Amino acid sequence: MHATRYRLTPAWYYLGQTRFSKYRFTARPEGLPGGADDGDGDPPPIPSAGSANKSSLFLSEESLVGVRSRSPLPLPGDLRNSIFNNTDETVNIIPRSEAVDAAKDLTSTHDVDNIKSCAFMVPATALAHALEANISSGLNTTTVSARQVQYGINKLESSGGVTVWSILVRQVSNSLTLVLVIAMILSYATLDFIEGGVINAVILLNIIVGFFQDYRAEQTIQSLQSLAAPMCRVVRGIGTVQTIMATELVPGDIVQLSVGDVVPADMRLVETINLATDEALLTGESKPSSKFAEVIVKDPLAKPADRPNSVFSSTTVTRGRGIGLVYATGMETELGDIARRLQGKKPDTSGPWYLRVYRRTLASIKNALGLVGTPLQVKLSYFGLFLFALAITLAIIVFSAALWDLDDETLIYGICVAVAVIPESLIAVLTITVAVGSTAMAKGNVIVRKMGALEAIGGVTNICSDKTGTLTQGKMLARKAYLPDGRFLTVERETSPFDPTSGMVMVEQSRINGSSVAEGLTLKSFFDTIAVCNLANIVAPSADSEGQKSWSATGEPTEIALQVLAMRVEHSKSQLLAHNGLSLAAEHAFDSSVKRMTVVYENAQGNLTCFTKGAVEVLIPLLKSSSAQNTRTIAAQADAMASQGLRVLCLARRDLTASFKSDVKDRIFAEQDLTFVGLVGIYDPPRLESAGAIKECQAAGVSVHMLTGDHLKTATTIAKEIGILGRHVPKSHLASAVMTATEFDKLTDAELDRLEVLPLVVARCSPTTKVRMLDTLHRRGKYCVMTGDGVNDSPALKGADVGVAMGLNGSDVSKEAADMVLTDDNFSSIVSAIREGRRLFDNIQKFLLHLLISNIAQVVLLLIGLAFKDRNGTSAFPLSPLEILFANLITSSFLAIGLGLEEASSDVMIRPPHSLRAGVFTKELIIDKFIYGIFMGTLCLISFVIVAYGVGDGDLGADCNHSYNSTCDLPFRARGTAYCILTVLLSVMAWEAKHLNRSLLNMYPEEDPGTLSIFRTLLKNRFLFWAVIVGLVTPFLSIYIPVINTVVFRHKALTWEWGLVFSSIFLFVAWVESWKAIKRTMRKRKGRNNVDPDKGIALTAVSTLDSA
């Protein structure tokens, strides 16, 4: 064992306005490396090299001061790094005199905000003095009553709950719905009850679906409240332990904690024995966090994950016991901070009263008109306002043409033109399309909680993802080992952390098995140790059970990984014990105070073998005396493995004769003079799908950021392994590409905005860091997905453009705050959601184009139709009101739904995200709808003119707008011709709208480049195919069925006019195909200028990643 040297170093430290003299003992055995930065999060200080010393852990009030002055050793590296920010290998202590000074300087006015900010930076005695609390006897009844009045009950405040009225108002708070309401009122006002009833049904459908979809989205605060601990044990009065409701706690109370307890408030620990808590809901760390009352944290910016001397409300005690001093309750706890952020922003009270009124009024108007929400929701709301203004303008044009002589005919005509410009079926089609998309997403392991998110996720530019369980499997795997003879053992091609039949164990490029292990002494000692010094149980798939189809395991994750490794070479614990006839002689369980475990087995001859595993820095001093070179070699190898993001364990053994059977029951004796057996590196392996999913994101121009509570080395290693970092990622080599949360949080907003690239990896991440990352990305104009599973992630999930919670391991709070929930916790499911979102975005563009073409064609026909006068000088309707309604609500609706069900195009994930500013109304879409719509309306108009004025004599009869009479034969035939052309061209246009650029004759060249591919195009979407067929057939029915033709639709049967209809089909298809050919030619020319000649890839996606 190496000698230990101590160094007493004075340092000066500031806390608020108080200056402390701080002394730090340093102990560094020669050659020992720093601890593995492996994200273990479970490394205790080592009071002694022997057994756990209760007096060194279960501390009295007196012993808290200067506790580290006796025989200190350095903290393990990962804990040391998290507490002291890698400054040096030191343990902070404050002598008794300094602690008393600290207690005097802390405010004693019960300023909770000040106390909670420094509770982890001073001894528990100093905090107790500030809170006027007695650690031994607790608070008296009078003090408790006074503080309950001062601080209130220990409970999260409610945001007011969910009201049915507010959700109902939200459903109608969009411009398009308001326009439809106005159209419905006008229809009823003009006694057109059929049109009014249909529009009414559309509005009700949208409200009902949206209401039930959004109701549960407002339950976040209620879920937070359900986490409160109901009961707790508190010391009060004269030291009496009482069981009380957790809501009755006040700052200064002394609370006892044991395994299984839910922590009732934020507390500074006073005494601990092997204590650990599950803080995943706050910190995101999947492993329990060990707690130590004696540790003093010197960093005032330390996050909850970096405060080993504190426990937090609603976390759970998983191991040991302890005593805590309450310093924050209710909304002042860490959980309360999250609840406060989830309640939304407080009203802006800055500025004069009239400015505040103006801002609130403007915000209310925007909410009422739906101008707040996802890009699609906002764009559609602006579009609704535009249509409303356009409808009024067109009505004014009609009334002006009549010189404002507003008789019934003119008023009805003006309303018809106004209604023609409104796509009445748009909301219904959008609702149905999104609902179908959400069903498809559910099959892909994504539950859509808020309908708008499905479209929104297709436009994301950045994904901020958790690591553990999302990008990784959330299970430990033994990946690499170092043997005493200098050889390395690796595990390759494993597919499941629990399945020992998957993967290969390699030593120097050679695969080993059970016979290889039996023949080699070094290998046998290694595998004996990991198999026997192990309490995990691996369960094979049951041959009789249909439900259990995969391997499962019970036990600590680390031990499971080691047992699976042993089983991969047919060297399991059960096999080893049965084959060698071993029986357990003694067991020294893992203890966080000594950070090692030892088991002693006796063979048939009575000889004993001690098998030990533990932290490297703990076992090296316990090894047999050997050269400093050997020790440095072991330490160097451990450091090298730790730098690869592995959690490194040291393995050792000791052989004894039967005479020592009684001695091995003493832990100190059993764990000395050990023989080095090897090092083993364990890590949480990436999911098999993660690398491919991230590559797919990058090809789609989506930048992926890893925000994890894990340590920097572990996070960086995983990021490189799955492709978040690497040469293929632009600017990932820059220093700002990898940061710790502390480094990120220290930067101002201006400094963050000046960074050339935002961090792709942020380690030791806290909830506030995630929110700041979101804010920074938003300032850069990015649209972001944020993933999370704990309560701590809820503010980020709610603040993200699309929040994605974990379904398997996520808390109820995170699920309620999120827009989507992954049922398999898999990052690749997010990529599937993006693909589905892009498919939905493309399809929305397709049916928007189709619906708007119909509206534009009708407006062209009706406006110019003002010139067609009957015998009374009244404008004759080129289309009857019911023809307009039927085309908009029946014919177009089913065609639009068919377009909404289109499959994703082949290039959906190899193009950059669409423009958030343009949204669905891109320049191409706007140009296309006018080119196609005007031409369609022109064909209808020309056909009407040919029938009425070319072949006919131009006599449009009298009073033919209301009913048929003997003078209405010609206008009814002309009107029927225009209607048939409109309906048939809309049906054909649905096929053309399947792709905005590709020809109908060759729409899927990657699947079927043949000349007959048009048949595949027509039949691929069966719903659309039959919708088109119905659209082509319905004109015949409406034209030839008696009564329906003349009374309902107000047109007559056609004869020779069908020639005009079929000619219009040919001309329209030729027009559309010609325009698409022009667009393809222009795109090819533009593409040549946007391709990197050296790499042959589009520069648009690369520039998107560069800007992230």
From TrEMBL:
GO terms for biological process: potassium ion transport. Its cofactor is Mg(2+). Keywords: ATP-binding, Cell membrane, Ion transport, Magnesium, Membrane, Metal-binding, Nucleotide-binding, Phosphoprotein, Potassium, Potassium transport, Sodium, Sodium transport, Translocase, Transmembrane, Transmembrane helix, Transport. Residues 29-53 are annotated as: Disordered. GO terms for cellular component: plasma membrane. It is a multi-pass membrane protein. It comes from the Eukaryota. Its EC number is 7.2.2.3. GO terms for molecular function: ATP binding; ATP hydrolysis activity; metal ion binding; P-type sodium transporter activity. The chain crosses the membrane at residues 172-191, 197-215, 382-404, 410-441, 847-868, 880-901, 930-952, 972-991, 1023-1044, 1056-1078. It is found in: Cell membrane. Its main location: membrane. Residues 118-192 form the Cation-transporting P-type ATPase N-terminal domain. It catalyses: Na(+)(in) + ATP + H2O = Na(+)(out) + ADP + phosphate + H(+); K(+)(in) + ATP + H2O = K(+)(out) + ADP + phosphate + H(+). It is an enzyme of class 7 (translocase). Belongs to the cation transport ATPase (P-type) (TC 3.A.3) family. Type IID subfamily. This is P-type Na(+) transporter. It comes from Cryoendolithus antarcticus.
